[in-house]
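Researcher: Structure prediction, please.
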Amino acid sequence: MRSLLLILLGVAIGVAALGAVWANVANTPNDPDGAVDVRIVLERLEDGRVEAGLQQREVSGEWGEVLRPRHRFLSREAPALTPLHSSVVVVDTDSRYETVADNYAEYLYQSGQGSAARFHERFGRAEDLPKMLCINDLNDPGFDSYCDGIEAGYNGPVERIEVTDYEAFRLELETRLLEDREIGALFATSVPTAAIVDDTREATGRFVRWSYWIELIDPLLPSPDNLYCVISHGSDEDLFWGLSAETSVAAAGMLGIDVRTEVYHRGEEQAEAIRRCAEDGAVAIATTLSEPDVMKPAVREAIEAGIPVISFNSGAEQAAEVGTALHISLDDYEAGRVAGEEFNDRGVEGHVLCVIHEAENQGLHDRCDGLEESFVGTVERWSMTDRATTVEELSARLREGDVNAVLGLSSSIGTQVRSAIFLTRRDVQAATFGFSRTIAEYVADGRLMFAIFDHPEIQSYLAAVGTLLAERLRIDPAAYFNSSQMLIVPTIVNPEEMQRLLDSLTDWQD
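Model: Predicted structure follows.
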């Protein structure tokens, strides 16, 4: 634990006339390196003296109790222009790293007590328990607390064995099990020592009761120098990617890690960004797979360099082939299928346009595939030639007169779909993917039939968390995750739900 020794600033005679003054000694918020907000409190007393104190801002944001140093008074007779100093005030400034370590140590201690209780149950008695060896692997530091918990909770004798050399430990344990008949229980704090215990029990024929602790994830905060990358395709014209980038940055702040967030129009640029991240020493990477064939070489190069890669958003069907350890996204095919069923339920017939705003994006094609599978009419995949002229091009298509409904595949396109319908004055229904204030208003007042949320905030937040999780895993993340997928089940959002969301956009400020 670190402590910051703060000496209250000298107080000149000129402040004696002030009733109370607050000044920031540290103007930065509490941060991972241990900085802490404090302020000086000066109060003029009835006898004319000025009393000084120090306050520290708590985690809640509130100011704590005023700390009063022993020498803290400025008398009315104090000389002018002469700095005077209080006695020292000690302010605890545990960094986030120390706080996490302390919390985990407490968890291990309590877990050790829980293990002791389970050994009691195994032996069927609480008194006259056999000796337990708590094997503390010093190659994986920090587990002293687990043995502390066992010692505190176990009603029999506990002997701690500190291990640094595994082969030496193997020989020692074999000897102890052969010669010390009082040993009746073993606990190992790591997988390597657990394997040795298992082997030694077999070799000696002493099948004493035992258990072990397996820690798949490093529980401590990573180094602040670690670089994590979240690289996606997308457009700065699309709100989805604005919300996505914003969420990645927010996640980085909440997690206390350095996340590089970048968005690219073309798959080739995105692949090069992955290579740059690898060259810059990234410890984990998250990427979208809108163009899987283009992304595959860069992803595999990163994996071969020992950098775990997870994918999110587009590319669920190709993720395993590309080689990412884990994929997080909306279930795009199912989302298109749900949209088609909703069109059917609302009596939409005939010809539906499925508007693809990124021609190479596999996830968008998956949505149109799902729509084709469930909709009773016909589906046309329609793409604009220029994002800047979407409304004009779509208006021209609608004037041909054979379109009965349109499905936009993002919030930005959904807005443009509505504008095109308004300009043509055609009796055409429309729905969209995505969320924005405008989309919410359009659904709430009936200008759009419904929406299906694509949740950029969930995908991007989990992508950032996923990079941290993959890097913190103590086993091979590619083998452990085994290309598993976390798919968001799509649902229809109706006008009443949209109105509630609109209200909540302002209610939180009340």
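Model: Residues 96-123 form the longest helix (28 residues).
Researcher: Thanks, that helps.
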